[in-house]
Predict the 3D structure of the following.
Amino acid sequence: MKALAEVLGKWEAVIGLEIHTELTTLETKMFCGCRISRDDPPNTNVCPVCLGMPGALPVPNRKAIESIVMAGIATNCEIMRRSMFYRKHYFYPDMAKNFQTTQGPVAFAMHGHLDLEVDGQGAGERPVWEDVAGDGQKPIVRADDGSYVVPIRIQRIHMEEDAAKMVHVGGSEGRIGGARESLLDYNRCGAPLIELVTEPDLRTPEEARLFMEQLRKVFCTLGISDCSLERGSMRCDGNVSLRRRGAAGLGTKTELKNLNSLRSLHDALAYEICRQAEVLEAGDSVRQETRHWEPSRRRTVVMRVKEVSDDYRFFPDPDLAPFDLSDEFVERCRARVPELPDAKRDRYMAVWGLRRREAVRLAADPDIASFFEGTAKLVEAAVVPTLANVMVNLVAGCKDLTRPQVAAVARLLADDAITFAQAREVLEMVDGTDADPEAIVDERGLRQATDVRALGAIVDEVLARCEDQVRQYHGGNRKVVGFLVGQCMRASGGSGNPKLFNQLLVQRLEE
Amino acid sequence: MSLSRQDVAAIADYARIGLTDAELDAMTSYMNDAIALLDPILEYDIAGVEPTYHPIGDLANVARDDAAAVGLSLQEALTNVPDSQGGYVRVPAILGEGGAS
Amino acid sequence: MTGALDGFSVRQIARGVAAGDFSATEVARASLDAIARRDGEVQAFQQTTEELALAAAGEVDAARAAGKTLPPLAGVPVAFKDNMNLVGTRTTCASRMLASYESAYTATCVQRMLDAGAVPVGKLNMDEFAFGSTTDSSAFHSTNNPWDLTRVPGGSSGGSAAAVASGEVAVALGSDTGGSIRQPAALCGVVGMKPTYGVVSRYGVVAFGSSLDQVGPLGRRVEDVAAALNALTAGGRDRHDAMSQDCAQDYLAHLDDSVEGRTVGVIPALLEAAGLAAEVRTAMRDAEERLAGQGVRVVEVDLPNMASSIAAYYVIASCEAFSNLARFDGVRYGYQEPGHATLARQTSRSRALGFGAEAKRRQMLGAYLLSSEAYDRYYLAAQKVRTLITADYRRAFAQVDAILLPTSPTPAWRHGEISDPAALYLADIYTISNNIVGNCGISVPVCLGSQSGLPIGAQLQGPAFADARLLTLARALERASDMEGRVAPAFAGRGGELA
């Protein structure tokens, strides 16, 4: 098969995502008081409502509505004041009522967008000729390094209920095809789920990957879910079709399932784009079907062919009153939306002058961001950029550090009392203990010597034996100081402060 | 507008109601008779009329607190399950002949 | 105070138990004895619950012995339509699908009756899943009208009406989706009330048409029905039913208020309709006069869209029924035909064999009407016609306190006499518009038919949440009749002695 870059040079990939997020941080399910559980024995978090027993009735979880409204606000959606729950009917044993309670044409949140920042290698996936956003209007401006920002429109985010978990027995790799029987655990049935549907504005697998990554950051920051892809708290389906470069209509799409990591999402789309190109270039047509990504074999395989569109017999759920969200309700949700990663990044850059790369990393994860900001309070503002450097490059590998420990190390590094390599060493030593980094540094004699008299003696000794370099300096070669600092460091056994050596050397040489 | 035998068979397939040939004939004629009884509502000019889905007109925003309640024990949950195994509810092959939808 | 239990009102039983005239256990035994002696002919019951009854009665007696104040229905025997869940019973909906289904929880309406001290003596026959107006579509057996055993008791709450009419229980609960409480009440000569939608919780009552269903009481007196409504609404709204409203009040308090100056509407055209039995017409004219005789102003009103209510009802009810019955697939409960290699086949066969003919017809019709090709034409249109019917009623209730109309166009007919489903649908004309708009309605026996000698019921419909006022008018109608407290003559006093 051809490489992605070659295919995307000729074909335009049109990609849309459907992302389900389980609101795992809530106490109870969407329409009943059962706890949301993950590891309980099968069918032990169930009740008449989520088991669909005759006569049971749903009552919506108010906090789930708050969560979806917050999700809508955080993704620049319009919050639809009046909406209803609908019933979506199809016979499938993981739905206890054989219909799913979901939303109709109007969802709680609609018409939003996220801006994607695409840089590095990933930016190269999008051919230059496609530099217009998915709405066909906004031009995309690239920076000198090829990076660009593209808005991805969100069609809607609606509220629904999750299905039961199934274990398929007797087929290969636990898949449903070929299974002899299936076992059902209704613990997850009825868990609150929000489904976000994008417009087909994504053009490369990298953009799809980044969208998912960014949405994950936003939802993590909101605290509405644990956002684990691995455990299925966030699940993504991808729709992709190809069209000739410059063509206006849409090609036949396929739907991709089992994209349970960011990497799978990227690689499955890349595979599928190349596969479709091959089909089309052979003069065949793409069939509308659902395909399953097999990560081990790095390919997609057919799950189900869709010949006619399904008729789900949608109608408004008569058991559930409409929602008519008040200004007060929406404003209360808005007030609960914390600062989002992009805003946080901008603030870090503006307030402390952090580099963009570090600001992005710190702002992405709410726990890291809160640790960082808490630690920043313990140090002088001038030390914060060093702290950011420590957090991004050193702290990530550690398990259990306290804020004062990290603050102390950042301060030592900023004061040039230790080197970067020593900072790593110290953090590893105090990790998981309540030891004070300053004490460790002193105890182990790690602190770089700052005694001017002792260092002065070393400087004098080095200058005395490096006559050549002294001559070069006086001849105008100022760079030679670096060599002399190295000589001083070696003479001090690495314990001298290189900045001080530098100062002392220049002083002596200028005397 | 009348429903053919095939139309009715497709609805029965969707609604998971297995009908014998004779039942399908009877059902087809019932369906067409029943639909004919609905004619009166086709005679209305209802453009601009809002539908009433819920009889208590102004009721809205009914919701509950996110607080856990006691549910069923495993034994209670499985009491009426015809076919269970190790705490799970068992079903035969979901995909397969006639079941791939 | 002693005698046959069927001569007592609900309040008389509760007062007698509280005063120690007889024990709750004696009352329970009397009711169970009446059932044993009468139900072989009436066949109102699906199951009797002697153990539950004696346990509940024992609790009442123990509470009294401990000097506690007894709840308002202490010791009153009650039975429930078999679509109401009660732990310790099967809830069959008179369907093969649920023949062995054991309730895992108790319906709110049932629980509230028990909380009021009522004693559960059994579960009552019905049309399968409440689809019907004869009780003949029960998968297990028919129920016979206590006034003439060759005739139907009406339906779908036919067991509830027959058990009350035969004096087996003092009060029963039914459910009404298109007349299923009021029509059997009329055919069996008892009082049956469909409260306003939202007054009584539907939680735990197997759903037929979710926007139409309402639970209500049947009794031999308006007073008995009001006493039951007190229990059903005590405690306010049910947090398990999102549609339920807080309607707790004392519905007995104003029963005997004067109705002088009240206004009742009549619709003359309805009394001229083809298919209305002459004796029903006569009974309705008498009812008008009896109300007028108590100072009620009788005026003409019009409900121009009422004729379309049957069509609108059949669309809405079938669509909701299809959806509500989809869950019966034999996986988590219900009839499962074993031996199928694929789930789709197992489900299709289980549903084919588990459901009776009418249940299948309604679901098929609903599945069609909700399909994308029919949705706008029928479903959406029906919900818009519903808006027009609602507006008709609103206009009428701006002028009148209630509307008086027949409950059923004829008294009870013979088993098998009407077999055409379409003809049966049309017999619901007087009751179903009330469900479409969610208002309250009540059927009160007003006389025995001049030709048939069978009971005839008059219906009063009132605006939403004016249930108490409707009961006052119903009581006025009852007061002027000689039907109050009547037990079907063949059964009155047969067994069920309170020693």
In short: The first strand of chain B starts at residue 84 and ends at 85. Residues 78 and 84 of chain B are 7 Å apart (CA to CA). Chain B has one domain: 1-101.
